[in-house]
Design a protein that fits this description.
This protein is mainly beta. 10% of the residues lie in helices and 37% in strands. The protein contains three helices and 14 strands.
Length: 207
């Protein structure tokens, strides 16, 4: 596969930047606040299933957003499709977070590549009612009752990662040991595309 230097949508957040910034990471946590007993999520951390994650929206022109942020840490492309991953440090848990953007040509003219799916691991990103990664499978099924298992993988540590997709909502989750470790935003009423799940070269599908 041809190496592709994918450039992400420009976010002011270190969680989405290739170069970590501890001050921004701390402020990221601070911007999720309680307002009169309700969770209030800052727009730049808001997850909208089937539409967006933070300031990245499905359908964004990759060339337009390329001006706003640098090169991905890991990327690849083939057959008109591409993915790129940026890593950052989560100071609250001492682990690396990642955001991945998956793109493809918008139409048969093959002139514009647009964002097709958005995958994030950081728990600072939440739905309007405060739902994020790190939840149990049972909690997630209660929130998204239409969710169905679609695939399983062995990661680089030989642990089993199970993918569940709520197709009608436009959101899928990855579970490791019963807890979600990542979520992916994709168009509602369209299944998560298996092509895009091969983001980690060491991950192997379980048939």
């Amino acid at each position: 596969m041809k190496l592709y230097k994918m450039i992400f949508l420009g976010l002011s957040l270190s969680l989405f930047a290739c170069k970590p910034n501890r001050k921004a990471e701390v402020s990221a946590v601070a911007e999720t606040v309680k307002d009169e007993g309700k969770v209030k999520i800052a727009e730049k951390f808001l997850i909208v299933p089937g539409r967006s994650a933070g300031e990245i929206s499905l359908g964004d022109d990759v060339q337009v957003v390329a001006k706003l942020l640098g090169k991905a840490d890991l990327s690849d492309a083939a057959m008109g499709k591409a993915w790129g991953i940026c890593y950052s440090r989560d100071s609250t848990r001492g682990k690396r977070n990642e955001v991945a953007i998956y793109s493809a040509y918008r139409d048969t003219s093959m002139r514009v590549k647009e964002v097709k799916q958005i995958r994030i691991t950081a728990s600072q990103f939440k739905t309007k009612d405060g739902f994020s990664t790190g939840r149990s499978l049972n909690d997630t099924q209660l929130k998204f009752p239409g969710m169905k298992q679609m695939a399983s993988y062995l990661n680089e540590k030989q642990d089993t990662v199970v993918i569940y997709d709520s197709m009608q909502d436009g959101i899928s989750f990855e579970f490791l040991n019963g807890k979600s470790i990542a979520l992916t935003i994709h168009p509602a009423n369209q299944p998560l595309n298996n092509t895009y799940l091969t983001l980690h070269p060491d991950w192997k599908p379980i048939n």
